[in-house]
Specification:
The complex is a heterodimer. Chain A contains 26 helices and ten strands. Chain A has helices at residues 17-25, 69-81, 95-107, 119-124, 131-138, 153-165, 178-190, 200-209, 212-221, 223-240, 244-263, 273-281, 286-328, 332-368, 370-383, 392-398, 402-408, 415-426, 431-444, 447-471, 491-525, 528-543, 550-556, 563-572, 583-595, 600-639; strands spanning 3-11, 29-33, 40-48, 51-57, 85-91, 112-117, 127-129, 142-144, 264-266, 480-482. In chain A, strand 2 and strand 3 (40-48) form a beta hairpin. The chains are: A alpha/beta, B alpha+beta.
Chain lengths: 640, 79
């Protein structure tokens, strides 16, 4: 039987972890969520030298504190999941900052290998690293790697197996300053005889830092330990004279700085192409111009591609209709089956031509580093709606399609920011909504009115975003972001990630879209639609001032918003909308449609990201809010 | 004579400074020190967006810091 081992990849963001993960696991991977969390969990397997190796790609983080969910999940996984080897991926070009994290991983005292990645860039930047010396300092094996070219990956796997075979020897301990070590020693003594998942040294250090989670854990075992640790912390604080969380950070950075001074030499080099590109793309004038033209052309490209592709799919589908009717007849059952197929086609025509390209583009922007530049340029503006620069990308994507926008909100760091961004995203009118607004208000009332609707929508986003910012609990975080150098994105990794991430979404979205489409066809077949129209009358006629048949049209928009227009025409008996709706009704109808419910695919994306409870809350809120706003708009417009 | 402590945001592009301390919640302090902004560390202001955010170079890497936080980072200007 094959022996099984587990390795975990840990490291800062943007160090090439996912490229290494992809090199290791190929197509044998699964990207999902950590149970109950909005944090991505990427797992894969490979076979090597008689071993089945499970690889876990932990989220990119800068520390093992409790700043983000990612940090907590990572440290818990390493301590409790006990992977056989922890592989710390390090960006060799920013060694000092990366080693800060390495030192924390070492505190966990698990078998470890360090991967020095981006060795090709090291040379370009005129840096040389004495790997042997570095290995001596850190006491764990170091493997130089160029992940994008696959260099060093084989050695990495061999070294991992060697480490597992050889049995684990505790690495040489890294020592911090004397005062701190004395206090760590004191706390360690109190931990004698207590069994814990984490290493004792890690616990002692975290108690000194005042880590809330660890404190809670130890408090339940023996509150006396906390008192001793608090005394130690006070003592060091009075010596250092700085805020508590910075004390250990200072110590670690001191060690890291010493190591870098010993092992690394710099030569000043000419500005590289990447540096020049950075200068232009972040420029106060050029940066904005480049950003706007890039974003617009990407949108243009995706839509042309999407429309083209989507048309082919829909034509193929309609071409099949007569054949279908021949087989199943034109009875009730056939209509119901047709509903299912329609749902399936709707799903395919959204996901293939629109969502996948959007997702790939997001991946490319992120991987190349351009996302950080956009975040820099848009930070001030985004602050006005209670978010920071990073949120601009998902919001912008939302104007294309809300689904990748929702899924893209993961780039926000804390749960709080993620939730605000996701909420705001669902209010953004996507391309399908734009089609309806232009086809109805734009065509029959006037383009300026359509534009006004967009302005009103934006104002609503602005206000609701601010309210969510105020109401949601937690410490608001501002932009603190690493500006990584430009890289040529690793296309294979981006494509694979897009695919594996969407796979997970498809499992939620397809059943929902198909069920929705089936239900709406069921309403027709059983002529329940009239009774539903009647049921909705108090809202449609009474509050919104719309004709009764608009009720079913609004419902039909749930699986796909373009359908509202088609159903409106079918029920009104004409596609000349001026004959069935007056201008005020058109405006109110569009306003409600813009806000009332994220389409079912977006609801699926919401569920994947924030779970059923919050998704239902957001959905319900938006339905009520849309009806409220629609009714108010109707009354205001009727005054003129 | 002691150099006056000012806010990071008061430095000009290209100016160098040394971190003195950070005002704010433990979350922000933790995050900043994790990213390398510990007291006593030298940095350089690389760029300021129209006022902010600020791009700085610190410990061999580049960081972008939002307006609100940048005003809460106390520094000494380096001559």
């Amino acid at each position: 039987m094959k022996k099984k081992i587990t390795i975990a990849l840990a490291g800062n963001a943007n160090v090439g972890k996912s490229v290494i993960f992809n090199n290791l696991t190929g197509l044998h991977q699964h990207i999902g969520n950590w149970p109950g969390k909005t944090v991505e969990r990427a797992e894969g397997t490979l076979q090597h030298g008689g071993y089945t190796i499970d690889v876990m790609d932990l989220p990119g983080i800068y520390s093992l504190s409790t700043f983000s969910m990612e940090e907590m999940i990572s440290r818990e996984y390493i301590a409790k999941g006990k992977p056989n080897v922890v592989i710390n991926v390090v960006d060799a070009t920013t060694l000092e900052r990366n080693l800060f994290f390495t030192l924390q991983l070492l505190e966990l005292e698990r078998p470890m290998i360090i991967v020095l990645n981006q060795m090709d860039l090291v040379k370009k930047k005129g840096i040389s690293i004495d790997i042997e010396k570095l290995q001596k300092f850190l006491g764990v094996p170091i493997i130089p790697v160029i992940a994008t070219q696959g260099v060093g990956i084989h050695e990495l796997v061999d070294e991992s197996i060697k480490l597992v075979k050889g049995g684990y020897k505790k690495p040489k301990k890294i020592r911090y300053g004397k005062e701190v070590e004395n206090e760590i020693e004191k706390i360690l003594k109190t931990l004698d005889g207590i069994k814990l998942d984490y290493s004792k040294r890690f616990i002692a250090i975290k108690l000194l830092e005042g880590d809330e989670e660890i404190k809670k854990m130890i408090e339940s075992i023996d509150p006396k330990i906390i008192r001793i640790a608090e005394r130690s912390a006070k003592k060091i604080q009075s010596i250092h004279g700085h805020a508590r969380p910075t004390i250990l950070a200072c110590e670690r950075y001191k060690v890291s700085n010493d190591i870098v001074k010993e092992c690394m030499t710099f030569e000043t080099t000419k500005a590289t192409f990447s540096d020049k590109l950075h200068e232009i793309t972040i420029h106060g004038v050029w940066g904005y111009l480049i950003m706007i033209s890039l974003v617009l052309s990407l949108f243009y490209l995706i839509f042309n591609f999407g429309n083209f592709f989507s048309d082919i799919l829909i034509n193929a589908f309609t071409g099949m209709t007569p054949a279908f009717e021949k087989i199943f007849g034109i009875g009730i059952v056939s209509k119901l089956i047709f509903g299912v197929i329609e749902g399936l086609v709707a799903g395919i025509t959204i996901i293939l031509p629109y969502i996948i390209p959007f997702y790939i583009i997001l991946g490319l922007l992120e991987d190349s580093g351009y996302l950080s530049r956009i975040a820099f340029l848009m930070d001030n503006f985004m602050h006005k709606i209670g978010l920071h620069g990073k949120a601009f990308i998902p919001l912008m994507l939302g104007y294309g399609c809300n689904v990748p926008a929702c899924l893209g909100c993961r780039i926000m760091e804390t749960q709080r920011e993620r939730l605000i961004a996701i909420f705001v995203t669902t209010l953004i009118p996507c391309a399908a909504v734009t089609t309806v607004v232009l086809g109805l208000v734009g065509k029959y009332v006037g383009l300026s009115w359509a534009l006004l609707l967009y302005i009103v929508n934006f104002m609503i986003i602005f206000v609701l975003g601010r309210i969510a910012f105020k109401v949601l609990p937690g410490e608001p975080t501002e932009l603190i972001m690493e500006m990584n150098s430009y890289k040529i994105p690793h296309l294979k990794t981006v494509l694979k990630q897009a695919w594996f991430r969407i796979k997970d979404f498809v499992y939620i979205a397809f059943p929902l879209i198909i069920a929705c489409s089936f239900l709406i066809n069921l309403l027709y077949v059983t002529s329940l639609s009239t009774s539903i129209e009647n049921l909705m009358k108090p809202i449609t006629i009474g509050w919104l001032g719309l004709p009764a048949f608009s009720g079913i049209a609004l419902l039909a928009g749930i699986p796909r918003k373009e359908l509202t227009l088609i159903i409106l025409a079918a029920h009104g008996g004409t596609s000349n909308f001026a004959a069935i709706l007056n201008p005020i009704q058109m405006i109110v109808f569009c306003l409600v449609m813009m806000l009332y419910i994220p389409c079912v695919a977006t609801v699926a994306a919401l569920v994947k990201e924030i779970g059923w409870k919050k998704s239902l809350f957001i959905t319900m809120f938006e339905v009520v809010f849309a009806i409220l706003v629609g009714g108010i708009a109707f009354r205001i417009l009727s005054l003129f | 004579m002691p150099v006056k402590t000012i806010s990071l945001i008061d430095l000009k592009e290209g100016q160098k400074g040394i971190v003195v301390s950070v005002l704010g919640g433990y979350g922000v302090i933790q995050r900043l020190s994790d990213m390398g902004l510990t007291p006593g560390t030298e940095f350089e202001i690389l760029r300021k967006g129209r006022l902010c955010p600020v791009e700085i170079s610190i410990r061999g890497s580049k960081l972008v810091i939002g307006c609100g936080i940048a005003t809460k980072i106390l520094v000494k200007a380096k001559k």
